[in-house]
Amino acid sequence: MWEFLFKWEQPIFSTRAHVFQIDPNTKKNWVPTSKHAVTVSYFYDSTRNVYRIISLDGSKVNGFIAIINSTITPNMTFTKTSQKFGQWADSRANTVYGLGFSSEHHLSKFAEKFQEFKEAARLAKEKSQEKMELTSTPSQVLAVKIEKEEIRRNGEID
C-alpha cells in the first residue's frame, strides 16, 4: 500500500491500532478517526532527514485519507495513559493523537519506537545545525546563536 504513496520514504516500523484525535472544541473527549484498527507506521524521509508517523484509512478503490501525518520533533512526548492506550500532541497539526492497541505489548513497542525516533530526530537536528554553522560565515553563526538565545529566553524553542 505504501510503495506508491511515499517513494522517497520507507516504513521502518508498523503496527495496528484504533486512531483517535482529541475533540478540538472540548479538548477533553476523544473522537475516533478510524472505524476499525488501521496500520500506523513510522516512516523515515532520507531526503529531509525526518521521521513521521503516518496512518491511512480507506482503500485503493475509494482512495486513502491520511488520518495521521505527524512529523516527530525532539520536544514531542508519547504518554501511555492506560494499559492499551497512548497519546502525543502535535503542535504543527494542532491536535492530540491517541492510539488504542490490542495489547500492552503493542503499546510498549510503539512507545519504545517513538522514543528511539524522537532521539534520532534530535540528533539529526543537531547535526543539521552543526553543518549550517560549518558552512556559514562567522557573522551568520553569531546571528543564529543570538536568535537561538532570544528564542530560549522567550520559551519558544522546539
TrEMBL record:
GO terms of molecular function: G protein-coupled glutamate receptor binding
GO BP: G protein-coupled glutamate receptor signaling pathway
InterPro entries reported in the protein's UniProt record: Homer, Homer_EVH1, PH-like_dom_sf, WH1/EVH1_dom
SMART domains cross-referenced by the UniProt entry: WH1
Regions that span the bilayer: none
Residues of the signal peptide: none
Subcellular location(s) of the protein: Cytoplasm; Postsynaptic density
Name listed for the protein in its UniProt record: Homer protein-like protein 1
One Pfam assignment: WH1
Gene3D superfamilies, sorted: Pleckstrin-homology domain (PH domain)/Phosphotyrosine-binding domain (PTB) (2.30.29.30)
Domain of life: Eukaryota
Natural source organism: Camelus dromedarius (Dromedary)
Entry similarity comment: Belongs to the Homer family.
Limits of the WH1 domain: 4-121
Keyword tags: Coiled coil, Cytoplasm, Synapse
GO cellular component: cytoplasm; postsynaptic density
PROSITE patterns cross-referenced by the UniProt entry: WH1
